[in-house]
Amino acid sequence: MTSYLEKARRSPQVSRRGFVKASAAATAALAVAGLAGCSNKVEPVEDSAADGVQQASLTEGTWIPAACWHNCGGRCLNKVLVKDGVVVRQKTDDTHEDSVEFPQIRACLRGRSQQQHVFGADRIKYPLKRKHWEPGGGQKELRGIDEWERISWDEAIGYVADELKKVYETYGPTGVLIAGYGTGQNVRLISYLGGAVAEWDSASHGTYLLNVGSLGLPHMGVGPGAVMCTSANDRFDLKNSETIVLYGCNPAWASAGNRCKNFLEAKEAGTEFVYVGPSYNPSASLLEARWIRVRPGTDVSFLLAVAYTMVTQDDPQSNPLVDWDFIEKYTVGFTADTMPEEASLDENLHDYLLGAYDGVPKTPEWASPICGTPVEDIEWFAQLVGKEHKVALLHSFAAARNKGAEDFPQMLMTIGALGGHMGKSGHACGSAFGPTAGDGGPSLVMPGQAGLTPIPNTLGYFVAGPDTWNAVLTGRFFDTGHNMMGSEQGFPPPVEREVDIHLICHDDSGAALQSRMNIPGGIEAHRKVDFVFTQAYTMTTNAKYADIILPACTQWEKKASYFQMIYPGRDFEVFPSKVVDPLYESKSDYDIIVAIAERMGIDPKAIFDFDETQQWFNVIVGSTVMKEDGTGYEPLVTVTQDDIDEWGVQGQPQEGRIGIKELLDKGIYQVERHEGDPYTFIAYKSFVDDPAANPLPSHSGKFEIYCQWKGDWLAASPRGDTPFKPYPTYQVPIEGYETTFDDWDNQVKGDYPYLFFTPHYLRRAHTTLDNVPWLREAFENPVFISAQDAKEKGVVTGDTVLVQSRYGKVLRIASVTETLMPGVLALPHGSWVDIDQETGCDKGGADNVLCGPVTSNSGVSGYNNYNINFEKYDAEQLLPDVEWPQRIVDAE
Ligand SMILES: Nc1nc2c(c(=O)[nH]1)N[C@H]1C(S)=C(S)[C@@H](COP(=O)(O)OP(=O)(O)OC[C@H]3O[C@@H](n4cnc5c(=O)[nH]c(N)nc54)[C@H](O)[C@@H]3O)O[C@H]1N2
Ligand SMILES: Nc1nc2c(c(=O)[nH]1)N[C@H]1C(S)=C(S)[C@@H](COP(=O)(O)OP(=O)(O)OC[C@H]3O[C@@H](n4cnc5c(=O)[nH]c(N)nc54)[C@H](O)[C@@H]3O)O[C@H]1N2
Ligand code: SF4
Ligand SMILES: [Mo]
């Protein structure tokens, strides 16, 4: 196998120089002229013909569609050229000409650097055991800093099987934590064994995970079968808006590939852009948006003042701002006249705005000191979103990922309703999250399901992400059920649970010790238990703090890539193929789990009814495509008996649009769109056309500006005691802007006088790909500081700074910018933690070292409004992390 790798490294891959050059060009083009390389010509995408490599050798071989399976908001087409079993080149979508109707699904630079991920020198090559681990835990305090020993698969599987057996026999399922979102495959084994304490986390959606169906909003989720982002119109409608408000969205980073093109097309057609948030981010810059500054976590105060202004300045003749017909017909609870029957409180938002209950009118002058938005900007925004303007209010979930943001979804919906911006072309108030990037509507191509029999986790103990590590450390947590989006059944009465966790099994699709808040507590929790095991490709943080690491192969090495079928874009679905055999001694997750089951004396069929090939086949043949008249779905793939025989699987021949071989050769199926075609989607149109026949999912069937369920549920929460009401109100968050002050009334700042947020970063998909040297070189990993704050602290770009919160401290190199509100710093999400044992300081700059285990009533992971302080750090100058040694384990 080593010789394979040597061969691969000698091969004319994308050169480092070529890659970095391409990334610099792409970034520049993004900022100046639009997305890089969006010409209409089909040209083979020459990632690099640089460094004198002969063209001929770059075109021989077979192009294979290769998975890009990360949780990044994209699913782009990547292809690799395989010659003599070695990947020699990579390219992206050149299956057809690029056009507005039929855009190429082009990869970003992360996708194009994938070969360094798969063939990296830092792959875990064989099973590893922590040197000072022994049954019972050994020297537990050495987790994360111990040496590694190479062991055989037989030993590794034996240790895992024995420890699982012992812990289940001694402590039962409450002795086990399955850390992660529960989407991995080893969850099936754990569930079979009796289940385990499992996590849920509001992660992506923030407070939009709070049963927004009760407000009248659709399910905001993603994934197979989910109706994706149906709260906003489809991409052809973007240009019908006079103005698009990007509310805390950053598609240029977070909807990578070339999805930002949707917005550029609208801009070219004359639509104006406004950006609302704490940073003038690359999307705002690309779209030349007007910047409305709002401090992280203070959006409800801003929007209350917008609503106040709309109501108080509304004049049906001279300045019609509020669409009273819309309010009356399609909403409940804005005024005393429109209260829902079930209302238990004789209060409404309209009168709250005017100060009827607390004596405080929610004027722009009231809001401005909280949200930091100039009064004239609040007033301007209120005019902009008035009923006479064609406005699309498009949000991601960043503003909802805050402590105390429970009322944000309802408040933004209220602004949309006041302006009457739902159900009409050119108007919208909904999500433009991740892959949607302004292309709302049900998916046109849907992947099938693997078809495995579900194995429920019968223990039924669910811990919220912010509480996870404390549950391990204290043995107690509040269980409020698995907060299922859009389902009231997902919120049973809270129960306080007692657990005694002795084993942590990392879900094989998550990076829990990095992505969950409170990494310092997570490390302590890992050092408390008897046994930690994980599957991993590289020395991730989960792996670093484990006792046994089982080397998993990547999706390029798997027979089947069905696990990557999440986040489908609207028009297409990608179907990758296996590229090479598993590298070194790595195995697929499926094979690993089967081996553990067998060692435990369990028939693997009890865990997986059938093998990976059958699962992948089921996904492919179960895929559906929207019928050409837009009335439901039909099978996508034609399957013959010959195909079934060739695959060696169970199945039935069927008629679809494309043969299975042709589909897999292409690697993608995409629906060509045309203006006005039957796939045209205007969110809420059927409801607005006939509300009685097409009610919303709320109790009243309308948008609930007063929602009794919401008020009751938040009031019953054992997690926070913030007095949220059924209608949106401004509440001081448990940690947020106000807590940067020691004395708010006299505006005296405290020990942590700055706010910080954690943007999803272009260099990586959360933590994934953060180890890739090309990406480290192309995108540095600084802490962004506003010019004014930096000046006050005597910090310049390139200085090493110490950033501290109440929960932890990190070092980073400063990048000083004019694009942040003063008082707000930005630390990119997902950097690999690297604790300095002497100082306890994280040199890696991991966001969740600073984000502590704090949550508000809904249990939200409120990443974006923590308090920090920072200072120039003179004890040490950090090197750019591209110059750090890779985490290569050589335990031969
Ligand atoms: N502070 C802060 N924290 C955040 C956020 C934030 O904004 N700020 N964002 C949150 C959000 S929105 C999200 S979605 C989460 C993401 O949190 P995670 O999903 O935990 O993060 P990823 O880095 O995507 O982790 C995926 C891991 O699974 C591995 N993996 C992927 N596929 C496979 C596979 O098939 N087999 C095996 N064995 N391993 C696999 C990858 O290598 C990687 O280590 O982070 C959350 N955490
Ligand atoms: N490159 C890359 N792309 C990704 C990911 C990744 O890790 N890397 N992760 C994917 C996933 S799982 C997710 S959930 C999405 C996340 O996608 P987003 O939620 O859109 O991403 P963020 O970068 O967290 O936030 C976007 C912008 O919101 C603004 N913002 C932050 N806090 C607030 C606030 O309190 N109020 C307001 N008004 N604005 C605020 C900031 O200016 C920031 O630039 O990205 C997806 N795409
Ligand atoms: S956006 Fe995501 S799926 Fe697309 S190429 Fe980049 S990393 Fe891969
Ligand atoms: Mo996410």
TrEMBL record:
<keyword id="KW-0560">Oxidoreductase</keyword>
<dbReference type="InterPro" id="IPR009010">
    <property type="entry name" value="Asp_de-COase-like_dom_sf"/>
</dbReference>
<dbReference type="Pfam" id="PF01568">
    <property type="entry name" value="Molydop_binding"/>
</dbReference>
<dbReference type="GO" id="GO:0016491">
    <property type="term" value="F:oxidoreductase activity"/>
</dbReference>
<keyword id="KW-0408">Iron</keyword>
<dbReference type="InterPro" id="IPR050612">
    <property type="entry name" value="Prok_Mopterin_Oxidored"/>
</dbReference>
<keyword id="KW-0411">Iron-sulfur</keyword>
<dbReference type="InterPro" id="IPR006657">
    <property type="entry name" value="MoPterin_dinucl-bd_dom"/>
</dbReference>
<dbReference type="InterPro" id="IPR019546">
    <property type="entry name" value="TAT_signal_bac_arc"/>
</dbReference>
<keyword id="KW-0732">Signal</keyword>
<dbReference type="Pfam" id="PF04879">
    <property type="entry name" value="Molybdop_Fe4S4"/>
</dbReference>
<comment type="similarity">
    <text>Belongs to the prokaryotic molybdopterin-containing oxidoreductase family.</text>
</comment>
<dbReference type="GO" id="GO:0030288">
    <property type="term" value="C:outer membrane-bounded periplasmic space"/>
</dbReference>
<dbReference type="GO" id="GO:0009055">
    <property type="term" value="F:electron transfer activity"/>
</dbReference>
<dbReference type="InterPro" id="IPR006656">
    <property type="entry name" value="Mopterin_OxRdtase"/>
</dbReference>
<protein>
    <submittedName>
        <fullName>Molybdopterin-dependent oxidoreductase</fullName>
    </submittedName>
</protein>
<dbReference type="InterPro" id="IPR006963">
    <property type="entry name" value="Mopterin_OxRdtase_4Fe-4S_dom"/>
</dbReference>
<keyword id="KW-0479">Metal-binding</keyword>
<dbReference type="Pfam" id="PF00384">
    <property type="entry name" value="Molybdopterin"/>
</dbReference>
<dbReference type="GO" id="GO:0009061">
    <property type="term" value="P:anaerobic respiration"/>
</dbReference>
<dbReference type="GO" id="GO:0051536">
    <property type="term" value="F:iron-sulfur cluster binding"/>
</dbReference>
<dbReference type="GO" id="GO:0043546">
    <property type="term" value="F:molybdopterin cofactor binding"/>
</dbReference>
<feature type="domain" description="4Fe-4S Mo/W bis-MGD-type">
    <location>
        <begin position="61"/>
        <end position="122"/>
    </location>
</feature>
<dbReference type="GO" id="GO:0030151">
    <property type="term" value="F:molybdenum ion binding"/>
</dbReference>
<dbReference type="InterPro" id="IPR006311">
    <property type="entry name" value="TAT_signal"/>
</dbReference>
